[in-house]
Amino acid sequence: MIRGLAMKDYWQNYINGKFVDGGAGVMQVDNPGTGEKFADQALADNNDVEEAVSAAKKVHESGFLTDMRPVERGRMVKKIGAYLLENLEEIAPLLSMEAGKTLFEAKFEVTNAARYFEYYGNQAETLEGRSIPLGSAYYDFTSYEPYGVSAQVIPWNFPMEMTARSLSTGLTAGNACVIKSPELTPITQYFFAKAAEAAEFPDGTVNVICGVGGTAGEYLCSHKNINQIAFTGSVKTGSAIATAAAKNIVPSVLELGGKSAGIVYQDASMSNLRENIRKGIFFNAGQVCSAMSRLVVHEKIYEEVVGLAEDVAKNMSVGIGIERDEFANNMGAMISLKQRDRAVSICDEAQKQGARAVTGSRKLNNKGFFLEPTVFANVEQNMEIAQTEIFGPVLSILKFKDDDEAISISNGTDYGLVGGVFTKDLDRAMHCAQKVRAGQFFVNEWFAGGVETPFGGYGKSGYGREKGREALLNYVQTKNIAIKLGAG
Ligand code: NAD
User: Fold this and answer.
1) pLDDT tens for residues 270-295?
2) In the Cβ-directed half-sphere of 401, how many Cα atoms lie within 13 Å?
């Protein structure tokens, strides 16, 4: 085991400003790269959730977060990001080892996590209301107020970035937050607790608890003192959380899965496509909600693109993430044996249904949770592999004849997270952008955009938007104040 300054065998939860054990005991966290134990994590029970929610409620009711000038709150938010950057060299190796991702990807993720606090911290003082003319007898205006206590339920694939995404907006808008960290990657969440301390937020403003989703997570999301929920994860859990939110009449943001398609026209640049295949499906071992898991390719260049994808996949170098500090052609492990074996079984089924495994689709012969970078050709729209989010390094390539068919295939799943097109023809690109049902659309660069650009799904990919200005509005409610003038 690599031991940096921050390495510990046991990691606690953080409730009301204290690091505490979990009422449900401890849980083992594995290192996906080695398949061995990485550390133990305190596991929260319902009582821990109760304490975290109660502490957050007290902070909200104290008015600390809302009485100060927003610029001051924004500065505190930005200090969280600064803390993450200052401790990048400690956090990134831990993240690489708990999540199996390459060290490059871990550093990239921590840097992006910090960026959220900079972007939203800068906007704290820009959440302004408006005045509404009602004639000379009234003065009417609106203001934004935080909901109060925000519950934030986090997935394992980008634990730092996903927590940063919800926590930065929640705090900027003046909410106290309870983070439910993911069971598979809870370790680096510790640094959000340390960062909140460094930024001098009062105890109870940021609580970080790891608990089992179906028990502590469910208890948190059903709690009557939770005023808003931000969830990032699977469709199944999203539906359960939306139901819990509906029962308490609280709003929720759901950032769910995807099965996103890049449409490739004949005039697309092949060298650009090569780069986009590399990052679109093999970044983070394909465990990205907005991964380019399908390519929809014009029939005249179909075999050429299949060959290109095969070449990209065969050139990937797969291995233990902590040993890989460059983007290059490096890929790490999948998160767990269960996820890896599920991907293998979907690949096996695809072959039975007639799809062609051009390369990959097998596990590596070692103890880590690795899957070979995989490309499938001759994929038909109705196959499971074309419809199901695999959440692994598996690219499905489908064929189209004309524009309508390309759009129809792209839109032919239950999801609608992102979409994209590769072409030099801007009119055609705009036609696709208008017709593809997705919350974000890329022209000639997969993942183009950043913290500044709103992100979220159509269809079963969820509702509400994280990132961009839009996200802040998920964490505030509008109050209208009407004053009758001259009434005494
Ligand atoms: P998951 O739904 O299994 O778990 C997500 C979180 O929900 C975990 O913290 C889990 O403990 C918790 N949870 C589980 N059941 C719960 C319940 N009943 N009540 C409350 N909490 C509960 O998802 P996952 O496997 O961790 O993440 C992978 C999924 O996340 C993929 O579908 C991926 O596409 C999606 N994702 C989406 C985005 C996005 O921005 N749209 C980003 C990252 C991941």
Assistant:
1) 999 999 999 999 999 999 999 999 99
2) 0
Task: Please give the mean pLDDT across all residues of the chain.
Answer: 97
93 lines ligand 1 (CB under 6 A): no
Q: Is 232 in the pocket of ligand 1 (CB under 6 A)?
A: yes
Q: In the structure, what pLDDT confidence band is assigned to residue 9 with cuts at 50, 70 and 90?
A: very high
State the virtual CA torsion across 283, 95, 195, 193 in degrees, nearest 10. 120
Q: Could you tell me the pLDDT band of residue 488, with boundaries at 50, 70 and 90?
A: confident
Q: Measured from the CA of 212, which atom of ligand 1 is nearest?
A: 11
Task: Give 445-484 pLDDT, tens digit per residue.
Answer: 999 999 999 999 999 999 999 999 999 999 999 999 999 9
Element (H, E) at 389: none
- Annotate 268-290 with b (16+ C-beta within 10 A) or e (fewer): beeeebeebbbbbbbbbbbbbbb
Mutate to test the pocket of ligand 1, among 232, 281, 284 (most ligand atoms within 8 A of CB): 232
Q: Specify which residues 36 forms β-bridges with.
A: 31
pLDDT of 228 = 98
**CB of residue 52 inside a 6 A radius of ligand 1:** no
d(CA 31, CA 311): 29
CA distance 237 to 91: 28
The confidence score (pLDDT) of residue 2 equals 47
- Phi and psi, residue 468, nearest 5°: 70, 175
C-alpha 484 – ligand 1 centre gap (Å): 48
pLDDT tens column, 218-273 = 999 999 999 999 999 999 999 999 999 999 999 999 999 999 999 999 999 999 99
**How far does the centroid of ligand 1 lie from the alpha carbon of residue 236, in Å?**
8
Residue nearest to atom 9 of ligand 1 (CA): 182
Ligand 1 centroid – CA 281 distance (Å): 19
Pocket test for ligand 1, best of 254, 289, 474 (most atoms within 8 A of CB): 289
Determine whether the shortest distance from the Cβ of 153 to ligand 1 is under 6 A: yes
In whole angstroms, give the CA distance from residue 94 to residue 40. 13
Provide the annotated active-site residues.
255, 289
Q: Which residues pair with 400 in a beta bridge?
A: 298
CA 192 to chain centroid, in Å, comes to: 16
Contact by Cβ (8 Å): 112, 27: no
